[in-house]
Backbone:
């Protein structure tokens, strides 16, 4: 009954039933706390005063049982048809399958904590279950919902949770750090009942079909053993291995983001086994295809620092976007429809002998680290070429390299090797058949090649070293100043307009040069003039005459006029054109501004040995009214620019991708003729030479501000006082009026794609496309501010004037990032978002891949609508005065004018060549 006094010396806990059938209230169990089968019947209330151990079944037929915060150890089945008050822990520790009939969900049926240590199976048999505390599944243990619903506060999973797929599972705190969740259903299921955060995840046994309805994050492995998983366009992030021996239908993106080695078992390359888009972002270890052929129908993206290894499996890729390393064996059959030749490394490491290259004949960086590779076609390398193991055999083919060449193993040449870049290095010793270094440009920039000191470059065939002119030379230097690099030429030599230093060519034929410069410490080179002063060398001061002393002009230029202008500005008058500029400069005319410019000399003025001053590259400004008959009425606006460095302006629109208009200056937008005419007074253009300032009304280049390397992104403060740009890992500021530098901030990186400046002009926000972040910079103090993580490949950054939120469009992973204080949220938006405009608490996002404009709620990120517009919509601009949205279709050459309320097309302007930006000012 429960109220009697029972004394049992040795309790039988291996068989038999003890049944309590009292009708009173009992504070403990009369027969103790150890049983085989135990049953409670009748209307009584029983409470534990200690932990309870039941080696058989525990049954509540009626009455009330209160564990009173104690632990119940159960080896058999649990059946509750009465009332159970749980505040302690039920431990299922049997050796055979254990069934749980919870009795339902309610205050008299729920569990506080449930722990499974049974190494066979524990499963629900009837009624749903609610666990207010933790469901803990021990290592080697399995808990099976058997299609019944489960509500759990916290899951601690060191074993296996088995789900069918049609049950309703609510887990407040999911365990995504350990354990396996296994789906075994045989039906068709929309969504995953266990949610979208897992450690290990399997689809097995039942052969069902599961469709995702949200992005899936897996911190362990995924195994598709039976049935079909369809991602429905949603993304999957995976930190472990991928194994598919059944069916996977992918239209979304799978990202491998682990911190240890990851493997891929595809099961093949059929439609039910390939990937649509694949991102390799694991930068700690390789991601490797283990077995079966491999296919990516869309884009394979390899992030910076990541390595993807095909492991000699046949591979088919739609588009390769490579900022990391693609590792190939050399024997695989590899098809890449759109090869990335602008970034990333392709590395061959096969140990056999191979003829032809699996990935084709065009690369960015290329490394050979295996055995022997023989070319069967011309090879084009836009970056660096490295031979770190084995031998590269050119097979009598031509090799063009735009970056550095490094050979620490073997190179056999019967073809032609061309160093086709600008600033290149050659390390290690190599023997070339034909070697060509040529500067065919006319940009006043030498093609410099730096050779490793002490290493020998042998040329058995034709050695061609060809500059273009005296300021476009091939410049050959040593990696260590004063230490010679070695050259052994045994064939034909063609050397013209070369500047050479620290070269020992004594092992081979004499190197005969023309129009060339000896910069010292050279052996077995000849043909140099006795003394030449090169542009940029240390030069003496000149008096205000047309001659200087103590230096010789290169006598090879006798009979030619030598001028020092790098840029000159003439005007549209017969007497003030380029010819006048030259004559004025030569004649020391008053038309020259008195800025201390070195005077120009004419070598023909004297004998061949006459000592005359060196010429210096500089800017020469011509008085706009010099030589004009009506000089009193002459104005600067009457002229146009002559000379190198002018930026081509077509119909008032600057034909470049990265420009900014000086704030506050006038712009006329006239659509009456079907064309967009933008007529700024001042335009800043980021070019390879620096920042070009244009007076676009007269199509005049006002000045070029040299920035060293090419600036990446450019911005102007709202007050128009400062131009902001990034270059070589730094953010620099210059005065917009004088173009004088003001300050430089080290921003620790490169790959900046866009700059925006806050409305108060105090903060700059930089989108870093390589490091996937927004970096803020305090423009007043010149210090770095906060850094915000974004999605992959931010190409634009916008700061809201109303809310202060920061938005970035991330083109590589199809997201936009919303930064609100310390909170950052990524929203999935289309395929390749490119630009963002905020209007009336809505975000308008362009899509460069689909040609759409997506509209989202600014607060929630909820998609409102998407409008199909063109082919590749990039830049967006909003005119608040007319409430019209302008959209540039880069691929179609079209600018659209849309009503902001309906997004209906109001006007369509065609005939542009790749419109990349639209600018509207008051």
Residues:
């Amino acid at each position: 009954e429960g109220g009697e006094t029972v004394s049992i010396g040795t309790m039988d806990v291996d068989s038999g039933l003890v049944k309590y059938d009292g009708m009173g209230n009992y504070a403990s169990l009369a027969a103790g706390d150890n049983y085989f089968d135990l049953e409670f019947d009748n209307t009584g209330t029983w409470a534990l005063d200690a932990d309870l151990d039941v080696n058989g079944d525990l049954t509540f037929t009626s009455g009330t049982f209160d564990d009173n915060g104690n632990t119940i150890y159960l080896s058999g089945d649990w059946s509750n048809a009465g009332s159970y008050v749980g505040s302690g822990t039920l431990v299922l520790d049997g050796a055979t399958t254990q069934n749980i009939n919870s009795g339902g969900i309610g205050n008299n049926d729920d569990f506080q904590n449930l722990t499974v240590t049974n190494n066979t199976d524990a499963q629900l048999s009837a009624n749903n279950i609610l666990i207010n505390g933790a469901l803990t599944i021990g290592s080697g243990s399995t808990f099976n919902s058997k299609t019944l619903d489960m509500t759990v506060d916290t899951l601690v999973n060191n074993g296996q949770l088995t789900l069918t797929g049609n049950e309703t599972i609510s887990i407040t705190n999911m365990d995504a750090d350990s354990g396996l969740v296994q789906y075994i259903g045989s039906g068709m299921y929309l969504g995953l009942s266990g949610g979208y955060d897992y450690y290990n995840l399997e689809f097995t046994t039942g052969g069902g079909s599961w469709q995702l309805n949200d992005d899936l994050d897996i911190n362990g492995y995924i195994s598709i053993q039976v049935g079909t998983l369809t991602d429905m366009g949603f993304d999957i992030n995976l930190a472990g291995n991928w194994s598919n021996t059944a069916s996977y239908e992918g239209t979304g993106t799978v990202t491998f983001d682990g911190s240890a080695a990851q493997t891929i078992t595809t099961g093949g390359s059929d439609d039910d086994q390939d990937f649509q888009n694949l991102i390799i972002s694991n930068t700690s270890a390789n991601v490797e295809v283990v077995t079966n052929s491999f296919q990516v129908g869309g884009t394979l993206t390899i992030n910076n620092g990541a390595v993807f290894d095909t492991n000699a499996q046949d591979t088919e890729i739609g588009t390769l976007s490579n900022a990391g390393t693609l590792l190939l064996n050399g024997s695989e059959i590899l098809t890449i429809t759109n090869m990335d030749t602008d970034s990333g490394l392709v590395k061959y490491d096969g140990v056999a002998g191979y003829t032809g290259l699996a990935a084709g004949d065009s690369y960015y960086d290329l490394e050979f680290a295996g055995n022997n590779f023989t070319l069967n076609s011309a090879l084009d390398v836009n970056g660096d070429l490295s031979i770190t193991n084995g031998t590269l055999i050119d097979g009598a083919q031509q090799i063009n390299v735009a970056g550095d060449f490094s050979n620490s193993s073997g190179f056999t040449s019967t073809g032609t090797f061309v160093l086709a870049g600008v600033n290149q290095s050659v390390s290690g010793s190599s023997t070339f058949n034909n070697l060509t270094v040529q500067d065919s440009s006319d940009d006043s920039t030498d093609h410099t090649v730096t050779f490793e000191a002490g290493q020998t470059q042998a040329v058995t065939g034709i050695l061609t070293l060809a500059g273009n002119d005296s300021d476009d030379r091939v410049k050959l230097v040593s990696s260590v100043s004063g230490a010679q690099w070695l050259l052994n030429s045994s064939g034909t030599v063609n050397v013209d307009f070369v500047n050479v230093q620290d070269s020992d060519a004594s092992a081979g034929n004499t190197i005969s040069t023309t129009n060339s410069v000896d910069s010292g410490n050279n052996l077995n080179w000849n043909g140099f003039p006795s003394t030449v002063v090169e542009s940029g060398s240390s030069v003496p001061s000149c008096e205000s005459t047309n001659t200087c002393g103590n230096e010789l002009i290169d006598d090879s230029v006798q009979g030619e006029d030598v001028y020092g202008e790098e840029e000159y500005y003439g005007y549209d008058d017969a007497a003030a054109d380029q010819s006048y500029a030259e004559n004025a400069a030569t004649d020391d005319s008053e038309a020259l501004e008195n800025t201390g410019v070195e005077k120009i000399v004419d070598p023909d003025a004297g004998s061949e040995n006459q000592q005359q001053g060196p010429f210096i590259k500089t800017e020469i400004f011509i008085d706009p009214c010099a030589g004009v008959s009506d000089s009193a009425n002459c104005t600067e606006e009457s002229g146009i620019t002559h000379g190198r460095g002018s930026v081509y302006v077509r119909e008032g629109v600057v034909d470049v991708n990265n420009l900014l208009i000086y704030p506050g200056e006038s712009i006329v937008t006239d659509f009456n003729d079907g064309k967009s005419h933008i007529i700024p007074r001042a335009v800043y253009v980021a070019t390879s030479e620096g920042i070009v300032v244009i007076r676009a009304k007269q199509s005049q280049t006002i000045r070029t501000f040299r920035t060293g390397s090419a600036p990446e992104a450019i911005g102007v403060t709202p007050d128009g006082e400062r131009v902001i740009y990034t270059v070589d890992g730094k953010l620099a500021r210059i005065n917009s009026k004088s173009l004088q530098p003001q300050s430089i901030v080290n921003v620790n990186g490169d790959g900046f794609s866009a700059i925006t400046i806050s409305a108060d002009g105090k903060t700059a926000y930089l989108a870093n496309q390589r490091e996937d972040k927004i970096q803020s910079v305090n423009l007043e103090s010149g210090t770095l501010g906060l850094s915000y993580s974004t999605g992959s490949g931010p190409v634009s950054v916008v700061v809201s004037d109303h809310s202060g939120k920061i938005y970035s469009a991330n083109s590589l992973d199809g997201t936009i990032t919303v930064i609100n204080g310390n909170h950052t949220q990524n929203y999935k938006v289309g395929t390749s978002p490119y630009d963002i405009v905020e209007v009336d608490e809505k975000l308008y996002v362009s899509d460069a891949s689909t040609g759409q404009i997506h509209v989202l709620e600014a607060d929630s990120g909820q998609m409102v609508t998407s409008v199909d517009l063109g082919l590749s919509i990039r830049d967006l601009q909003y005119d608040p005065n007319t409430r019209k949205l302008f959209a540039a279709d880069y691929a179609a050459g079209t600018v659209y004018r849309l009503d902001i309320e309906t997004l209906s097309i109001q006007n369509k302007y065609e005939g542009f060549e790749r419109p990349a930006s639209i600018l509207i000012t008051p």
